[in-house]
Amino acid sequence: GSDDSSAEGSGSDSKNNEDLKELRVQFVPSQNAETLEAKAEPLEGLLKEELGIPVDVSVSTNYNTIVEAMASDQVDVGFLPPTAYALAHDKGAADVILQSQRYGVNPEDGSPTDELVDFYLAQFVVKKDSDIESLEDLKGKSIAVQDVTSSAGYVWPAGALDDAGLDIQSDLTPTIVKGHDAGIVSVLNGDTDAAVTFQDARNVVKGDYPSVFEDTKVIATTEKIPNDTIAVTPDMSDEWKEKITDAFINIGKDPEGLEIIREVYSHEGYVESEDSNFDIVRDYQKFAEQ
Amino acid sequence: MIEFRNVSKTYPNGVKGLKNINLTIEKGEFIVIVGLSGAGKSTLLRSINRLHEISEGEIMIDNASITAAKGKNLRMIRRDIGMIFQSFNLVKRSSVLRNVLSGRVAYHSTLRTIFGLFPKQDVNLALNALDRVNIADKAYTRSDQLSGGQQQRVSIARALAQEAKIILADEPVASLDPLTTKQVMDDLKKINQELGITTVVNLHFIDIARQYATRIIGLNAGEVVFDGPVEEATDEKFREIYGQQLEEEQKRGIGAGAE
Amino acid sequence: MIEFRNVSKTYPNGVKGLKNINLTIEKGEFIVIVGLSGAGKSTLLRSINRLHEISEGEIMIDNASITAAKGKNLRMIRRDIGMIFQSFNLVKRSSVLRNVLSGRVAYHSTLRTIFGLFPKQDVNLALNALDRVNIADKAYTRSDQLSGGQQQRVSIARALAQEAKIILADEPVASLDPLTTKQVMDDLKKINQELGITTVVNLHFIDIARQYATRIIGLNAGEVVFDGPVEEATDEKFREIYGQQLEEEQKRGIGAGAE
Amino acid sequence: MSQLSTQTVAKPTGRGKRMFNRVLILVILAAIYIWAFAGVETFEIKETAGQISKAILNGIIQPDWDFVPGAEGLIYGLIDTLAISILGTFISAVLTIPFGFWAATRRDKSGFFVTGIGRFVLSFIRVFPEVVLAIIFIKAVGPGSFAGVLALGLHSIGMLGKLFAEEVEAIDHGPKEALIATGANRLQVLVYSVLPQVLPGFISYTLYRFELNVRGASILGIIGAGGIGAPLIFALQSRNWPRVGVILLGIILLVSLIDLISGYFRKKIV
Amino acid sequence: MSQSQTPKKTVPRPPSKLKHYLTAAIILILLVLSYQRTGSSIMDLFNNRDQMGSLIVDMFPPDWAYFKDIIEPMLETIRMAVIGTTFGAIISIPVILLCANNVNRIPWISYPARFVLNLIRTIPELLLAAIFVAIFGLGMIPGIFALTIFSVGIIAKLTYESVEGIDKGPLEAMTAVGANKFQWIAFSIIPQAAAYFVSYVLYTFEVNIRAAAILGLVGAGGIGLYYDSNLGFFNYPRVNTLIIATLVVVLIIDFVSNKLREKLL
Ligand SMILES: Nc1ncnc2c1ncn2[C@@H]1O[C@H](COP(=O)(O)OP(=O)(O)OP(=O)(O)O)[C@@H](O)[C@H]1O
Ligand SMILES: Nc1ncnc2c1ncn2[C@@H]1O[C@H](COP(=O)(O)OP(=O)(O)OP(=O)(O)O)[C@@H](O)[C@H]1O
Ligand SMILES: [Mg+2]
Ligand SMILES: [Mg+2]
């Protein structure tokens, strides 16, 4: 229970967390992970060992609540996707310290490469027999997108289309679907001509639709999207920021720790990051906010 | 003909409503059942058309066991038994006419009745039944806007409209004024005599019982304590039916305050 | 003292329940109200403690207008008026005792009563009241497991336990056997005489009315058609109270079938 | 039976007006339906339908038993959910009782104003999105079960209040009259005549709400409360049907159990 | 009346209250256990009450200009709710009659019927959406189907429990006249239960409008998506506008539902 700490760890007085007695971490597992688990305990154990103070990790299904909890000092560390992070930072709720690393994705079959990266890509998927070959061909077509705050499901693809001279709202007919898998299914069903998803969301539906890779093709990918961030509340003392940064990096380097974070969160390690890495998000923001 | 064979009834809470009743009621009889409040009169009446399941024994209606009857068979037996309820049992939200017409449903096809498409004849029958109990003018009033006596009369009209072969009436005139009481009892007597309809009435009024009954049955604590033609039901006998209880009570020290 | 001053009552559906009633009932009187079913007896009674709002006029209880009373004041007037309902108005799911005790709530603080903490005295009072109507043995039974007459008696016991100065009884003995009827009426008479409690009873039984009343009021179609001491209420007068209506009905061609 | 003399039967009063009302309602309803159906696209079944639904069902009927044990497994998740629901439902039931009476129309008073406000407050609580409620409480007490309890507790008032109020409106007014006649004050009338009549309804609605809270995973998933909400949502998102299957099985068992127990209680009380 | 002495006649002993105490004790224990398990703390709430207000403050003033943007999706949502609720209500009728144990006294029908109803209510919206989208593709049709099933769960459950609580008298009267099951239902159940049914249907209609989230899941548009994106941008004034718009619709439904119920009660 976090009752005792949250009672003292909150309140309006902005404090220097020299006396941080308990670390409260919250995350939303990202959908482009291989496994999507609501497991908090493994990370709790690892961090406790590194930091030497009690750690309370919880899992949410919604980024908004994490940001709000950070804004009111109810959570110290949050795992946020790029778009959510940029918004949170501009709201004064979060400062990035780290980004997670994953293996890259093999564009052919969606299998992992052996290259460690701190970014991922979004892709445009159409039916194999479709005559859509490039982004330009998408003009006038329907496309399945995610919620406008989704990095891979809306923001980056909108940017890519913009580069190709198309406005996602006026030149295409976007249909919002919930979940990247739903985007793929809508292409398979012929409900939409195309879909934007993270690379390669087809794996998620492969179980239900084994021939998905034969029946669809990727016509384009987007710019690099920074991986999930690990952000802390801005009023955290530098000392603690450092400690936490080191703790995560150590976990990624320690074989045992790596084993756990790989299995549960599909993370391969953590690298330091800074806010300027996310200026691209702020550039793309204009496509989402209308 | 109604026949009780060793009928007993125990309520789920353990109260014994009827104790080993043996009775034969012939076609065309006009029977009045008397007894103290709580003696089991309603229980007896409601066992006849099996609104209460009896715990032991068997009840025969025209030589067919209603205790064993099922489905359509049971419904047809019940259609031929009209009942006037002590607590009226009207659908308060429905109009008076609809309540009376509901007595006719067993005569018609399901489809027809659930859409309320009763033949003109039935509607007339229902209005006539209401007329007989002097409330035809309330036919389209909602039942919860009636006075106590008026509600009782609707309940009577429903049973009359049913054109049954047996009528069971549970204190049908309790809430009625003397004039309407006479009218209702006359009416019951009339259909009893003219159409030979077997009539079983629970009543608290000794003089009315004497006036209308052909036979009187006295109940006490679930047992038949008197059964005979109206001539035999002397004041003495009545005192027995009621008084037995009274004496017991007095022995236990009650009723003293009432003198 | 109860005083009706030009009281009229029209129901929302347009039925005129009372028409310009003027009456004065003195302390200690035992009044019986008679009239056809639907004449307005219940309406009259229920106007006295303002369960029905009257449309015109004013009703005074002991020289205080209940029509104008509000809040605590109104509650205190009502506490002193016990009522026995035609339809019993029991809480079916509560035990008999709790129903009777509910007659006592106005004597105690809210807090006490909502937790059911009645003084021992009150419980005894309630049990005694039940005893007087012969159903003390059912004190802990759920009220819906009672026979019709037993329910009526619970309703009477509730009014008795209230220790009111005025008792209004709406056909209190309709569902009772002659023995219990006598007991209840004797009891009402006794508290009327010994404690000087004003009693107003709606009744359908002419003989009982004569036996107990000091004054009889006849109602017809919402109007007072007779008001006088019991000696003046001759058979002739009763025939008038009821018959007037009868003749009208006959003129309209009803009731012919009933002879 | 004598022929009926027509003038004695009252002409159904206001029949014309009622007919008019009925026709009016029918016309309005017809218009609404025409409008509603006009917007529906044509009906078609996708060719992939069979394949995908078969895959889903196949997965679901092969539950992922490995998920059952463990500190973050099914059983503990269900217990957490249960604890949150018990507390949340209790809070809402207690808070709702005054709301229910507040919002119930009083026939004896032209209390539209009072009643109207009661109804308005309930409607407002009902439309308030669960997520926003969740955020509000997370900001106060941090993510976790307690925030879940509070969010459920408050959110449930909207629904329970409406149902309670309607139950209060439907009671038999006889016993209420009897209490009024004894001079009882409002609270006493409530406790002695209204409460016994509405209690079975209240209890059964509360148990229903309890059941809703147990299986209403979304709010608990959002709130980071532990419980079965988040695992279910993630399993659905990753189309992990065996996992979905085992969680559903757990919920069904739990809900059936609650249903059995609540049925038993209702039988005792009604 | 000076009868405050104990009555002479032997009054039965009051029934044991043990059962009540036991029930109360069990509930209390459950509450305490739950309180501990959830780590609840009233103090926390009390200490941080000012934090709760901050979000509400952020919501004001509402973004009035946004209204015109949400009229269309709101109408779309109402459209689907109308159809879904209607189908749900129609399907509910037989389900209710099968489940209510005073209508259907055959336990081996009523219990399975209730079990199926339980199953229906347990299926998460996400799963319904996944299946219906697979079958019908994206759009209104799967939304309507999902709402239909969802509605059956609510309407049937609430109504059948109310039916079990209705006045038995009229039921008896219809049994006594020899009515068959359908007639019996038409003349004694329906008049007593109709008001409940109508009010639950209208309530469900209202829920369906709010349950727009389901519609978002099947790509049917609706107001739910607008909630999501505005929350995603922390645009609380717009969220407020959405709440107000929904409130207006709900209040209208509430008003109509009261008028209808008055006519029926
Ligand atoms: N709630 C109501 N709404 C409309 N009309 C009513 C209502 N209650 C009673 N009435 C009508 O008012 C008239 C008088 O009713 P009241 O109950 O006073 O009669 P009563 O003399 O007590 O009759 P009874 O002996 O049958 O009980 C009747 O015609 C009745 O139909
Ligand atoms: N549903 C029930 N459950 C348990 N006991 C009951 C039930 N109904 C009646 N009883 C009891 O059975 C006995 C007989 O009741 P019954 O209704 O047959 O009496 P009655 O002769 O009709 O009386 P009354 O003249 O008062 O109507 C009474 O003691 C009553 O308390
Ligand atoms: Mg009886
Ligand atoms: Mg009356």
From TrEMBL, chains B, C:
Q: Does the keyword Kinase apply?
A: no
User: Which Pfam family, just one, is annotated for this protein?
Assistant: ABC_tran
**Taking every annotated instance into account, which residue ranges of this chain make up the domain ABC transporter?**
2-246
CDD domains in UniProt: ABC_PhnC_transporter
Q: Which UniProt keywords apply?
A: ATP-binding, Cell membrane, Membrane, Nucleotide-binding, Phosphonate transport, Translocase, Transport
Cited SMART domains: AAA (SM00382)
GO CC annotations on file: membrane
A single Gene Ontology molecular function, please?
A: ATP binding
Decide whether keyword Cell membrane is in the record: yes
Q: Which PANTHER family match?
A: AMINO ACID IMPORT ATP-BINDING PROTEIN, PHOSPHONATES IMPORT ATP-BINDING PROTEIN PHNC
Q: What is this protein called?
A: Phosphonate transport system ATP-binding protein
Annotated organism of origin: Terribacillus aidingensis
From TrEMBL, chain D:
Q: Which Pfam families match?
A: BPD_transp_1
Give me the Gene Ontology terms describing cellular component.
Answer: cell envelope; plasma membrane
Q: How does it sit in the membrane?
A: Multi-pass membrane protein
- The answer to keyword Transmembrane applying to this record is yes
Its keywords, alphabetically, are: Membrane, Transmembrane, Transmembrane helix, Transport
Q: What residue ranges are annotated as transmembrane?
A: 20-38, 82-104, 111-128, 134-154, 214-234, 246-265
Give the subcellular location. Cell envelope; Cell membrane; Membrane
Molecular-function GO terms, alphabetical = ABC-type phosphonate transporter activity
Sequence ranges assigned to domain ABC transmembrane type-1 in this UniProt record:
78-262
Among its keywords, does the record have Cytoplasm?
A: no
Show the Gene3D superfamilies listed in the entry. MetI-like (1.10.3720.10)
Q: Which InterPro entries match?
A: MetI-like, MetI-like_sf, PhnE/PtxC
Family assignment?
Belongs to the binding-protein-dependent transport system permease family.
In terms of NCBIfam families, this protein maps to: PhnE
What protein name is recorded for this chain? Phosphonate transport system permease protein
Query: What is the organism of origin for this protein?
Result: Terribacillus aidingensis
TrEMBL record, chain E:
Instruction: Please give the start and end residues of each transmembrane region.
Output: 21-38, 78-100, 126-156, 182-202, 209-227, 239-257
| Topology with respect to the bilayer | Multi-pass membrane protein
- CDD domains membership: TM_PBP2
Q: Name one GO cellular component term.
A: plasma membrane
What UniProt keywords are attached to this protein's entry? Cell membrane, Membrane, Transmembrane, Transmembrane helix, Transport
Domain ABC transmembrane type-1: residue ranges: 74-257
Supply one GO molecular-function term.
Answer: ABC-type phosphonate transporter activity
Which Pfam family name is an example for this entry?
BPD_transp_1
Give the subcellular location.
Answer: Cell membrane
The family note in this entry says: Belongs to the binding-protein-dependent transport system permease family.
NCBIfam families xref list: PhnE
* UniProt name for this protein: Phosphonate transport system permease protein
